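Fold this sequence, please.
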Amino acid sequence: MAVMLHESPLTEAADRLREELPGHRVEILNGSIVVTPPPDGPHQMTLTWLIEEFARARARQAGLRYVQGIGLWLPTGPDDYAVPDFSVVDAGFTDALAEKNCYAPHVFRLVVEVTSSNWTNDTAAKVDVYARAGIPSYLVADRTHDEVLLYTDPADGKYPDPARYKRGRSVPVPESVGVSLELSVDTLLDGDD
């Protein structure tokens, strides 16, 4: 069900930026426009590797879909939306179209961000907005600090402290996602070569 609730000056500005800056990611987080430059090669290799890993784990057969760069409508402001790097969603997610090509948060099981030059958005602002949206699992491949953070089970709009994973370890995908899978920290940080 597609519904256009409103068009504000903020969303109009975000739309103009998206047209003027091809390849850049434009999001509205907590009422502010955030523009991210195109990702580097290792960032994109991580996302391709994630697709392969979730395919090997038979996520589609478990009633899931795994996608890159789809919009997530956020309850944090009238115009707020994010565009996660990678998401695991319910198979029928397209029925949850909210607004501006973004989908309602309840269909998202796991959101993954691989940090780039704007790492503070992924490690601070998005921790807040994803928790407030009730996203059950949020994984951050924090290339700036050379670790992977896993936030799970938000309560009252906040995640508890994250589980932290260093190189040489694997991150277990939470059961709530719906597949059994361990993800290599090294590959999440460096991409698959």
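The first helix runs from residue 9 to 20. Confidence is low (pLDDT under 50) at residues 1-5.
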